[in-house]
Specification:
Strand order of the largest sheet: 2-1-10-14
Shape: elongated
Helix content: 40-55%
Number of strands: 27
Low-confidence stretches: none
Amino acid sequence: QEAGMPDPRHELGRDKLVEKIIDFVGESRDTIRRQIRAMGSSCDWSRERYTMDPQLNRCVNGVFARMFRDGLIYRAPRIVNWDPHLQTTVSDDEIEHQERHAKFYTIKYGPFLVGTSRPETKLGDTAVAVHPDDERYREHIGKVYEVQWPKGPKISVRVVADEEVDPETGTGALGVTPAHSAVDFDIAERHDLPLIQVIGEDGRMTEAAGEHYAGMTVEECREAFAAELEAAGLMVEVKDYVQQTSICYRSKKPIEPLPKPQWFIAVDKPAVPWKGRRLSLKQVLRDAVASGDIRILPDHQEKTYFHWIDNLRDWCISRQIWWGHRVPVYYRGEEDMYVGHEPPVGDGWAQDEDTLDTWFSSALWTWSTLIDPELAKDPSKSLRELLAESPDYRKFHPTAVMETGYDILFFWVARMILMTTYATGEVPFRTVYLHGLILDKDGDKMSKSKPETAVDPTEVIQESGADILRLSMMLGNAPGQDLKLTPERMTGCQRLVTKIWNASKLIDVTVGRIVDAGVRSALAVPEAPEHPVNRWMLDRLRELIVRVDGRFAAYAFGDAAEQIRQSFWNELCDFYLEAIKVEPLSGSRETAAVLMHALRTYLKLFHPYMPFVTEHLWGELVDGESMLLHAQWPEAPAAHDFAETEAVDAVVRLVAAVRGVRAEQNLEPGAQIELAVEATSHQAVFEACGPIIARLVRASEVQWIDAGADEPANASLAVDPDFKAAVSLGEADRQAERQRLEKQLAHTEKRLAGLEKQLANENFVTRAKPEAVENVRRNAEDARATLESVRERLAALGA
RNA sequence: AGACCCGUAGCUCAGUUGGUUAGAGCGCUACGUUGACAUCGUAGAGGUCAGCGGUUCAAGUCCGCUCGGGUCUACCA
């Protein structure tokens, strides 16, 4: 239509149109393939499938035929959602709701007053329904009234009693229009009422609406009829009213409920064998998740799923469109009908013109894709035989994890559960991981129907690279949470990727200085290096792996990435890579081994998030022969759980504390300071780290003070449970030092007061977990020790 | 109308089973660096965790209500 062909179906005919669609599909498929590859997804491309592949069609037909035999698929005239614009039915799930400012009319109707927002449908009324207990109308039940509509037909309405009618709503009398309302259709079935269709498939009034109105559009007729009612004195009231209207998700045009024979799936019929019982499809849907056979993440989405099942009605699966799996039903004359996965033998058979809802074939996805394409060519095989004999099906079904957006839970996930439990007797997957949606900077969700919100991955990749795009969508994002993809978000990821590149280069150069290139690959991970900082690095890596594995197990991929980033930046780059610039670490072979181990480990951990950069670095710096993609996921060796870790953590704190003093005392940034340290614990590790400390805080050297000895007089003192560090001031700024200490004093006192209050609470000490109490005790002791030191120092300074 | 989600630093968001002093990125301030760093480093400012009530020794976390924002579902004539 956009290319200037107003009615392509008419002008081209079925075969030509389908050919054009095939061309279009080919282009889309190429785009999708390009995008998925550019994103670096690791797919098994040898098993690529398309829903229209012959083997999948075979499964569609087979399932349809079996469901028909089991009475789960039926054809019946029902009220369907008809799109007059697209000339097809659409399913309940393909309808969107829109508010429309409308009028609410109250019409005099025989002895009743009846309310409606669609007066034009009243031309096709065949009954008035009231609640059986409604005293106001009891006398009328069972009677028949003739109503002459102005310039319209004379209709005859029977008064029926029906529980569905709510006496509180409107006047309590409901004009029944069986042909144009699903509720009314059901009422008509219960009371065997006739059906008059006054709106046609073209969206215009039919002859049944009377000569005057026939041919008008629905809107025209509404206005014209309302005016006539007014003139005839039958219009009692007209109010403004906000109406919820149904529109088609694709055409965005109003849906017209119409009676039409269509194919349906019966969701309430108990015909499915499941766990030794015969259940309805609805019941199986419910059981698959309620029993825990399938887990939906995040958990709260299970509620949404159950809510959907509760409201599910029979699913209309036939469409009057030409692209799709054709309904496998064949007719001959008026009488003969054949349903099967192969066309019937003999002449004179014509296939049903309709196609199936796209979700019908998508619902078979987890197993139809695993059916052996060769076996599927054999028409003598039953569906059960195809399943039993297809190696991929036997090996890979059920799928472990189904990952998709939560907006598609009903369309796809629920229908896969429905169809797969029926067709295979198995659940399609064990875990459903529902990710969030991508939002633009204004918070609007990315969607095909709103091109301005769409992000084309290939464009972003051209500019920033796939790794940064991937990271931006994962780093720090919680499961199922929507995500604003903004330039600011990508900036941080850009920096991380660059940092990894640079740190890897430094590791490469450093290792190259220590060992020959040929020896590098022979560097084994040291079991127990000598230097505490090397031990610390191995232990940090070990613990990081444990944390990341834990986060992965919880499907918290964003948090896992955050953990890796923190460790990489703060522990490796900011501390370890600085520490090893100092002797004896700088020249030691064990440092080279730890460096290579760290590089390998971080590359592996980052690889799922940024496959391209890490793969490249792996090839250049670690192993040119193998691929990182194929490498073993890192394991956390228990042997690397070293006791020195706590001590080196104290060293890290010492460095930070001294830097803090430097900043607060406004010491000349380039100047070397004189530093004296009393290690109240971990003396050996502190002393081993002396040169590192000296470098990181720009001290000429570290002087060690014996426990209890006096600190230098003209110095600023940093106090910690594990150490006291004195920075000589030369021209002492006592005022600044006093302020700094008083700040720490106030802070520590406040903290201690809180801790002591907690310990004084009998209930806390007796009822809280012992570890919690022990923690508070230890912290209180530390705080007291710190206070004492700070007070002493203040006193010494006081004079 | 019903269901669900969200409300935490200027912005975008983390915060696992309730447990010390609530975190990150971006932005901001000051200083420094250009011998891994398409910069980076160091230090810092910034939060009554929407509000009210409850449970508990202990609540950002559990429960109830209210107010805001959003999504989905719906056959009110």
